[in-house]
Amino acid sequence: MSRTKRILVVTSGALFVRGGHLAIAEATAAALRSAGYLSEVMVTPQNRFGRQLSAYWANWLTDVGETADGQPVDQVISLRFPSYAVRHWHHVCWLNHRMREYYDLWERFVRGLGRKGKLKEGVRRRVFHSLDRWLLTRNVNRLIAQSKTIQARLQRFGRIPSELLYPPPPVRPYRNDGYGDYVFAVSRLTPLKRLGLLVEAAAKMKDQRLAIKIAGEGEEAGLLRERIKDLGLEGRIEMLGGVSDAELVTHYARCRAVYFAPWNEDYGFVTLEAFRSGKAVITTADSGGPAVLVRHGENGLVGPSTPEAVAGHLDALAEDRGRAERMGQAAARDAALHTWERAVEVLVRPL
Prior knowledge:
Blueprint: E1 6-13, H1 20-34, E2 38-45, H2 52-61, E3 75-80, E4 91-97, H3 106-110, H4 115-139, E5 142-145, H5 148-156, E6 163-164, E7 182-186, H6 195-203, E8 211-215, H7 221-230, E9 237-241, H8 245-254, E10 257-259, H9 270-276, E11 281-284, H10 289-293, E12 300-303, H11 307-319, H12 321-335, H13 340-347
Parallel strand pairs: 1-2, 1-3, 3-4, 4-5, 5-6, 7-8, 7-10, 8-9, 10-11, 11-12
């Protein structure tokens, strides 16, 4: 009688921070269980900035080969730094990202540092580049990028080859309740997510009928509220704070369209969540993963990352509900191409 295979999904996290990678990890484990495997998520240390090297060492020393009662773990799927440092004979890395401050965010990161700080971080950067390259080419059996943006970064920083597999959105009861009178945005409220761009765009709109609802928590919440007040937009922009899964699905279902225009995002499953709900996505050409998935005028709108350009897109959808519906229908067809059944098939493929 054959034994049910055990597959461990491993990701790393910082304290009191819940990123999108954890949602992907949980969705992956759930999809594996639905396919008949035994699966659970392990969250390994990431450590705060400046102490990540010890987190790599902790991941390297973590035993993922057997369960507590001595049963074998048949496969490991890691998602990000430094979880790909765990060791297993069948190790697939479905990469979300490396430590971006030492890669594509390097110029932003060192901009505010003094001479000594730049020298110190430059040394650390070289160490992590070498370490990551070794781990991603020698420690894992297969490397799969979660988006074309991530795949391009692997080539740019290290010439590391990879396969490609987009994560489907987390399994939720997505639906479409029509195309209401507001644009919805959801993400962590940090500078890289660029919710401030949406606020500035709202102030430049010609059509005042379309409202905006922003869900999420983070360091920029206070600044966004202040800016909304300064611009006199309290009546049109609502800050929702954290929302439950049920509330999230409802907002996707009822909104006219979804705004998601981060800076050079790795992947961003907000795009496919919106698509699954039959909603077009407003994004920018420099958004990274979203800009690859959104085709301008077909399943969303793509343009420059300026308040004027975003305001133009908001006005276009405010004036033409039918256009939002047509693009949303195309988005739903695109979402149907990304399924967890196919993702599992790719991830568990024999070596």
